[in-house]
Amino acid sequence: MTELRGRQAAFSHLPSLTGLRFAAALIVYFTHLSVEGYLAPGPAAAVFRYAFGLGWLGVEFFFILSGFVLTWSARIGESRTGFWRRRLVKIFPTHLLTWLAALLLALAAGELLTTARLLPSFFLLNAWVPELDVMRAVNLPSWSLSVELAFYLAFPWLHALVRRIRPERLWGWVWGVTATIALLPFVAETALPGSPQLPGLKVSLTQNWFLVAFPAVRALDFVLGILLARIMLTGRWIRLGLPGAALLVAAGAAAQLALVPTAYGFTATLALPLALLVAAAARADITGTRSPFRGRLAVRLGEISFAFYMTHHLVLHYVRLALGETKVWSVPEVAGLGLVLLAVTIGVSWLSFRLVEVPAMRRWSRPAARGERPEPALTGGRTG
Fold first, then answer.
1. pLDDT band at 116, cuts 50/70/90?
2. What gap in Å lies between CA 333 and CA 17, rounded to an integer?
3. What is the DSSP string of 242-304?
4. What is the number of H-type helices and E-type strands within the chain?
5. Does the pTM exceed 0.85?
6. In this model, does residue 127 exceed pLDDT 80?
7. Which of 84, 298, 324, 373 has its CB 3.0 to 4.6 Å from that of 19, i.e. a possible disulfide?
8. Structure letter (DSSP) for residue 329
9. Angle formed by the axes of helices 305-323 and 296-303, to 10°?
10. Would you call 356 helix, strand, or coil by DSSP?
């Protein structure tokens, strides 16, 4: 345990996980490019299954990664207020910037703006409401940020509870959480209304919301990340390298694609493989094992991945409107256009990262005055 603590301090920044963040954001980007309306109806129908199925992979990865990284980097003795301050300063400046940009772009495009689209998304409450207009928000990706905010608020207590689990029982909890995630589609199909169904899917809006957006349900992915980080910190990791974990993710993705468009084609087959991939990537950094996600370019792109995620849909959506809402293109044309817009999005994201995210973290991530009143520590309970 002492050795792992020392290695945790030495590797508080895990570059492979940073590089993986951009890979996950890139999957979401190409998913939205595929379903945004650029493709002609024939090709669009052909790629729908792949775009829809793989898109959830990226979002689920972010939820699991959050639990892992927050646990790995948890500061012993830090107050809950200090933790929440750092997380809110990390997400809210970029969120407010993209929310305002989305508002101005929507007004310029003459889109209908309702209170349901504006207010819940501004306060990042939109993931709690199973209504399409609310979930669409003014900037579509903000629904997942709403889920992340709930994770951040609950983390001090979830982390403390997981720390009380005996190390030899951690894998049992991993299997239990994974089994629960796999059973959720059955719960959605039997306990929630199945109609009206969403276009192209065999699930209703309520079932879709329950499985992919409801924060209380998605917290299982977050807890899975916490558990895997604790397994690493307590020396209980198995001999699974990055290539093996990647093969498991590929198998899980293939199974998920086969299950689209049913309720089982969202997260059921990928939760555990993605959690293992996150842990294996972290282990590769600790041991110095080769990792394709540790290169300088991968890490630099990973650093702007949050800004990229929050801006990409604005670029894709409003460029399409500017080019003509009814205009469609062939697959090669969309591929070329997608690469151009990818470069544009990366440029915009870099500006947002450098001019908003970094200055905000430097200015507000720590308290302005000394002598804060002592609060309960962020971490606690049995260390194992």
1. confident
2. 33
3. HHHHHHHHHHHHHHHHHHTTSGGGSSTTTHHHHHHHHHHHHHHHHHT---TT-SHHHHHHHHT
4. 16, 0
5. yes
6. yes
7. 298
8. B
9. 70
10. helix
